[in-house]
């Protein structure tokens, strides 16, 4: 921890800071929508921002991979002509929790793989991320400690930590440094500020603890043992296949690509939209065969895509513990509960082997 | 390419879906540039007695005259499109099927009811073959245009077979159930871009039910929100009563 990487923003200057930040480029922050729902939306003043919020309906991925994105525009006919498109807009995201930043880190890894997703990778260069650390749990659905996303660990330009009268701000990148310089509103961090930050983090370690009775390093093994578990059947019986869990997931990036012609049949565009492995048509192929027809197979696939497969491929979980999938599920399918059931069932089996 | 000849016909309905096209604004010019409209009672007085490339049918089939008429149109039409909830799923006219037909006739026509024969309300595909379905009450114009493009390209159009919730979530609406309001989005087919919920209304199920809903779990969800199953069935029957006819 070096002092020159930290600055301090007094709370009474927060609104001024936001106004100045909004003057640089489009500014997006969590906004209350009522009924305990929040969303990332464009803001121009500090009063609009909900500093204390539970994860938004959709994660920040909507700025990195829009719900409906043009990839190509083309002309038909003899002189066909195709033009690739990257739609982007410079934007600053303010107030992202560490879970949502972890989500972006996951997407960065997955979409940098070959074949690279140039649309995503180009767009991401125009997005500035300002984090806001959680000093306590947002609600009972979060499981950020389990997946190691409860503390800041990179992936942002600036990170705000609430220290009562002021924010302690970590500068992580050059564009973070630029914001500090251009807004001219931050003070230098003194040693006692950093001590305050250390105290906040120590206190956090007491609050955040494993939300599921299993050690992080044992999760992949648990999933290796649980492929034929009855827990999946039970989850499948409850699933309505509405796709909410994947649409709100910060690390789900599956999409469908479609072509659309104008009515004159001369011009058209190729675009992509978010898709979900939970929807029945998702795994339907030519000839009508569906290789994930049953709901439990689809749900199981979702969990393995978060806790097992990415461990081999990217050495990390693709769950950020934000709890959105649980919060949004009408059928009350709970991520923490499903994992706990798997743990219990697996323990039973281990015991039986010993007896 | 010669412009396909297109004709609009209305059966039992409010003709509001046709009005949606008339109300398209500038977009209607692109439609008229791509199709040759030969018959459309709501907006023009010309008639056409030869074959149609495309017949657009609004309304449900409710008596023997309608059956005869739709059969004739089908024979003359290369492609037939069921247009609007009344045509695609029977729609609100289906509520008639909640009652005895004679009771209905007496209620409407009084003593002379015997001169007015009637039948159970049917969706168009329950009487003749339908090539494309444009769901909705009223139809959602962007989807209608997408279907017209599919017709021009000669490819099928698949109505999404997943819940309205999918599109609703992408539009980042607050879930109606969070607001304490009962909504049919979880069991209704998407394709409307959650039009009603975007505008503060609930989903009434006008696009028809999912082909494979998880009924058991849906009941549990209703129980969780203390919603009696009868209420949901009533709500579903407002548009979807005709699905009981096989």
Describe this structure in words.
The complex is a heterodimer of chains A (355) and B (246). Chain A is α+β, with helices and mostly antiparallel strands. Chain A folds into two domains: 3-207, no CATH class; 216-354, no CATH class. Helices cover 36% and strands 20% of the residues of chain A. Chain A contains 13 helices and twelve strands. Chain A has helices at residues 14-24, 61-64, 98-112, 118-124, 174-183, 191-207, 219-225, 230-238, 244-247, 295-307, 309-314, 324-328, 335-354, and strands spanning 6-10, 26-34, 37-42, 68-75, 81-84, 91-96, 127-132, 158-162, 166-171, 187-188, 255-261, 267-274. An eight-stranded mixed beta sheet of chain A has the order 3-2-6-7-8-9-1-10, with helices on both faces. A four-stranded antiparallel beta sheet of chain A has the order 5-4-12-11, with no helix packed on it. The longest helix of chain A is centred in the C-terminal third of the chain and has 20 residues, at 335-354. In chain A, 40% of the residues are buried. Chain B is α/β, with parallel strands linked by helices and 246 residues long. Chain B has two domains: 5-153, Rossmann fold (3-Layer(aba) Sandwich), CATH 3.40.50.700; 164-244, no CATH class. Chain B has ten helices and five strands. Chain B has helices at 16-22, 27-34, 64-76, 85-89, 101-109, 141-153, 164-170, 195-198, 215-224, 229-240, and strands at 5-10, 36-40, 52-58, 77-83, 132-134. A five-stranded parallel beta sheet of chain B has the order 2-1-3-4-5. The longest helix of chain B has 13 residues, at 64-76. The radius of gyration of chain B is 19 Å and the shape is globular. The model of chain B has no long low-confidence stretch (mean pLDDT 95). Classes of the chains: A alpha+beta (355), B alpha/beta (246). The A-B interface holds A 33-37, 39, 57-58, 62, 67, 237-244, 247-248, 260-265, 274, 276, 279-281, 295, 328, 330-332 and B 1, 30-31, 33-34, 145-146, 148-149, 152-153, 158, 160-163, 165-166, 169-170, 172-175, 177-179, 186, 212-214, 216-218, 220-221, 224.
């Amino acid at each position: 921890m070096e002092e020159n990487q930290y600055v301090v923003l007094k709370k009474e200057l927060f609104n001024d800071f936001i106004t100045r930040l909004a003057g640089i480029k489009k500014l997006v922050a969590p906004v209350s929508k009522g009924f305990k729902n929040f969303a990332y939306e464009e803001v121009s003043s500090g009063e609009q921002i909900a500093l204390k919020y539970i994860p938004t309906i959709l994660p920040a991925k909507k700025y990195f991979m829009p719900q409906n994105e043009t990839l190509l525009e083309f002309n038909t006919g003899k002189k066909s002509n195709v033009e690739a498109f990257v739609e982007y807009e410079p934007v600053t995201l303010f107030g992202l929790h560490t879970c949502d930043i972890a989500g972006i880190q996951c997407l960065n890894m997955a979409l940098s793989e070959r074949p690279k997703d140039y649309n995503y990778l180009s767009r991401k260069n125009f997005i500035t991320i300002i984090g806001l650390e959680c000093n306590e749990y947002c609600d009972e659905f979060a499981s950020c400690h389990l997946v190691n996303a409860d503390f800041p660990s990179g992936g942002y330009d600036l990170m705000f930590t609430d220290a009562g009268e002021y924010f302690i701000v970590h500068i992580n990148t050059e564009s973070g440094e630029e914001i500090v310089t251009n807004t001219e509103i931050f003070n230098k961090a003194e040693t006692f500020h950093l001590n305050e930050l250390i105290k906040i983090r120590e206190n956090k370690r007491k609050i955040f603890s494993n939300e599921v009775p299993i050690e992080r390093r044992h999760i992949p093994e648990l999933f290796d043992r649980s492929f034929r578990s009855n827990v999946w059947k039970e989850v499948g019986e409850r699933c309505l296949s509405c796709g909410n869990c994947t649409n709100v997931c910060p690390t789900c990036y599956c999409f469908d690509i479609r072509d659309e012609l104008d009515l004159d049949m001369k011009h058209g565009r190729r675009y992509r939209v978010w898709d979900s492995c939970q929807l029945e048509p998702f795994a339907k192929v030519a000839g009508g065969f569906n290789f994930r027809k049953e709901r439990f197979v689809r749900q199981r696939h979702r969990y393995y895509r978060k806790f097992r497969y990415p461990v081999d491929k990217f050495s990390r979980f693709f769950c950020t513990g934000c709890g959105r999938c649980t919060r949004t599920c009408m059928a009350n399918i709970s991520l923490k509960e499903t994992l706990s059931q798997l743990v219990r069932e697996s323990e039973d089996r281990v015991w039986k082997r010993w007896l | 390419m010669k412009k396909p000849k297109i004709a609009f016909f209305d059966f039992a309905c409010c003709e509001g879906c046709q009005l949606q096209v008339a109300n398209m604004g500038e977009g209607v010019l692109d439609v008229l540039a791509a199709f040759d409209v030969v018959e459309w009672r709501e907006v023009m007085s010309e008639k056409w007695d030869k074959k149609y490339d495309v017949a657009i049918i609004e309304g449900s089939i409710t008596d023997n005259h309608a059956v005869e008429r739709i059969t004739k149109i089908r024979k003359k039409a290369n492609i037939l499109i069921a247009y609007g909830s009344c045509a695609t799923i029977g729609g609100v006219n289906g509520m008639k099927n909640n009652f005895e037909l004679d009771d209905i006739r007496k209620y409407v026509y009084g003593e002379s009811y015997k001169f007015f024969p009637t039948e159970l309300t049917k969706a168009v595909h329950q009487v003749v073959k339908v090539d494309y379905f444009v769901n909705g009450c009223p139809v959602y114009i962007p989807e209608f245009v997408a279907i017209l493009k599919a017709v021009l390209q000669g490819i099928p159009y698949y109505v999404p077979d997943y819940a309205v919730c999918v599109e609703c979530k992408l539009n980042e609406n607050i879930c109606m159930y969070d607001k304490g309001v009962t909504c049919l989005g979880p069991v209704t087919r998407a394709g409307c871009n959650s039009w009603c919920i975007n505008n503060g209304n609930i989903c009434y199920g006008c696009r028809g039910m999912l082909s494979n809903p998880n009924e058991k779990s849906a009941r549990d969800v209703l129980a969780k929100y203390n919603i009696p199953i009868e209420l949901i069935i009533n709500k579903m029957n407002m548009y979807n009563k005709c699905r009981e006819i096989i």
